[in-house]
Every structure is written in structure tokens, then in C-alpha cells.
Amino acid sequence: MAPSFNDENSLFNFVVKDGNGVKGLVDSGLTEVPGRYIQPPHQRINKQQAATALPENMAIDLSELDGPNHDQVVKAIAHAAETLGFFQVVNHGVPLKLLDSLKVSAHQFFSQPAEKKAAYLKAVSPSPIVKYGTSFVPEVEKALEWKDYISMVYTNDSDALEFWPNECKEVALEYIKTSKEMVKRLLQELIGNLEVNLDDSRLESLMGLRMVNMNFYPTCPNPELTVGVGRHSDMGTLTVLLQDGIGGLYVKKGENSSSGNEEWIEIPPIDGALVINIGDSLQIVSNGRYKSAEHRVRTTSSASRVSVPIFNLPLPVAKIGPLPELVARDGVARYRELLFQEYMNNFFGNAHEGKKSLDFAAIN
């Protein structure tokens, strides 16, 4: 018989503080979603009302960057960055076998007993570069997200091999290392498209902090009442995301914030592809030319889903602000210059709320 979680404190302690996570709730035999997970109606995801972005229009072949179609490929990447903020890439240089191993490793990590995962809770983790948790910032959220995660910050190979969980450390490290050149190339092409030249050290400072997450979305008895991840944009420069075959990732089309006119597009999984999305830092650096993508994740009752993002972020000590050449050309700076650490502190201090995180840097 499933335990009762009518008391919000007992639910919070079980899921968050004790590290059982959403998976612990599901494993307990839960047949309906506890009230703390029920989203207000305007935050719920109506699958029927979302458009599906056709795969053939979304997958960009990165191998063609080195051929005669280079300019057309850059144009496609830039167009996606200026509009939806999301695109998918194939022939990206990350081995397909590794992508399969990542999904298997994610399931292996989350299928462990709760006490094994709880060893990485923030308060007891052997290192600040590894954190296991649930939802986003559960202490400040009115409604919790139906998601557990393990987050691993990359400092160097030896730290990763020593502190990251055994179930996933080798494949996660390989994922970060094999994707680095792709991320650098995409950033070079996007900055070049703005007709600005950045030297390698400046480029590196925009992607010098890398963090890989493994996200786990357990089956949900009432998916229509919940979200896996609430609407938000990522804080970094570029995010590389591996989806499994289940789907459930939605991106908002355009920046119209009027809830009556919103259009959401489902990003369908494409076998062997990686999803790329623009983060807030690149929107700031490009003075608003490139758009960070507002996105969210639906839950499902049919199967547990995993996703594995790499967040490529500026170094915490890096200053982020509109590139001076763009400010001179545009005649206005739309964002102030600030340390990325300040932006990051603000981002993690608030619940997900669309692209509100950008207001922290915006010049009104």
C-alpha cells in the first residue's frame, strides 16, 4: 500500500530532503499525483494543441560546414538561432554508440536504491561538482516539477573520474569531451555571422564552464496535471541535449507572452541527432539578435524518460554583455554587462518562470 503524503512536510522531506525523489514516489505505489505536483491550469501542457516541428525541417547536417554548402548551413543555423532558438544536428562528431550508452547509464543511475543516489545530495555530496536532486529549486516552487536529476560540473578529467557517480562518469566525461569541438564550431559560426571576430580566449570564456546533467522523468499517473520541467530558458551560451525516443520537449514559438496567443512546438526525437538550444548568455552577447529558447517538458504515463543535456556556460568570472561592435551598429545596448556568476546566482535563486531570468540583465 502506498504511503500517504497528505501532509506537505512529510512529502517534501521524503522527496527532497531524504533523496527519494519523484522515482521514490512512483515506486511507493502512488496512483495519483500529490497536490504539491499539480500545476495551475495555465502551466499545464496540452499535447493536442502543440504543433510538431517536422524532422526534415529541423535537422542540420554539420558535416556540410566543411563543404560547398557551408554558407547555406550557417544561414540555417543562424536563422534557427534568430527565431526558435532550437535546432537539431546530425553528423555532429559525437559517436552514436556513446549516445546509446548515455541513455543506458542514466537509467542505471536512477534505478539504484534511494540511499545510493542520496549520497550525492548537496548537503552530503563528496564534492561540490556533483549534485543529485529533484525539481528545480523546490524550496521556492509553488508546484514541484516531476523530475529527478544528477548534475556533474566538469573541472578536469581526474576530478570527474574521482567524484562523478561510477554508473555514468566515463560516458558523461566522454560526452563532454567529444562534443566540445562541435560547440566551439557552432559558436564560431554564430559569432562570425554577426560579423564580429573573437579570439580563442574570448570564445573559450563563453563556453569555459561545462556541466552535464542526467534527467529522469518517471512515469506519471496524471500527466495532464504536471510538468517534467516548467517553462524556462537556459542561462548559458549553448545547450547540447540528447533526447531518448519518448519525446515530450516543447519550445515556445516567438516571444509573445500573451497566454492566449502562445504557440508551442514539440521537438520530435530524431535517432542519432542532438538538440541544440540558444541560452540567455548568447542572447545577451548578441544584443538580442539570437533568442534563447523558452522550453518545457511534458510528463507521460507510458514510460520513464531520460534526457542528457550539456550546459556550455561562460566562466563564472567572465563578464557577459553585448559585444561592443553590435552596440555600435545597433545604436543601443539592450543588456548591461555583468559577471556571469551574478547571473547564475539570480537564475538559481528563483523558480522557473519563462524568460524572466533575462530581466536581471535587461536595460529597460
From TrEMBL:
Database matches in InterPro entries: DIOX_N, IPNS-like_FE2OG_OXY, IPNS-like_sf, Oxoglu/Fe-dep_dioxygenase_dom
PROSITE patterns: FE2OG_OXY (PS51471)
Any one of the GO BP annotations: coumarin biosynthetic process
Single GO molecular function: 2-oxoglutarate-dependent dioxygenase activity
Listed pathway(s): Phenylpropanoid metabolism
First-level EC class: oxidoreductase
EC number annotated for this UniProt entry: 1.14.11.61
Keyword annotations of the record: Dioxygenase, Iron, Metal-binding, Oxidoreductase
Keyword Oxidoreductase applies: yes
Domain (Fe2OG dioxygenase): residue spans on this chain: 205-314
Domain of life of the source: Eukaryota
One Pfam family, short name: DIOX_N
SUPFAM superfamilies membership: Clavaminate synthase-like
Cofactor: L-ascorbate
Catalytic reaction annotation: (E)-feruloyl-CoA + 2-oxoglutarate + O2 = (E)-6-hydroxyferuloyl-CoA + succinate + CO2
Family: Belongs to the iron/ascorbate-dependent oxidoreductase family.
PANTHER family from the UniProt entry: OXIDOREDUCTASE, 2OG-FE II OXYGENASE FAMILY PROTEIN (PTHR10209), SCOPOLETIN 8-HYDROXYLASE (PTHR10209:SF230)
Name this protein carries in UniProt: feruloyl-CoA 6-hydroxylase
Organism in which the protein naturally occurs: Lactuca sativa (Garden lettuce)
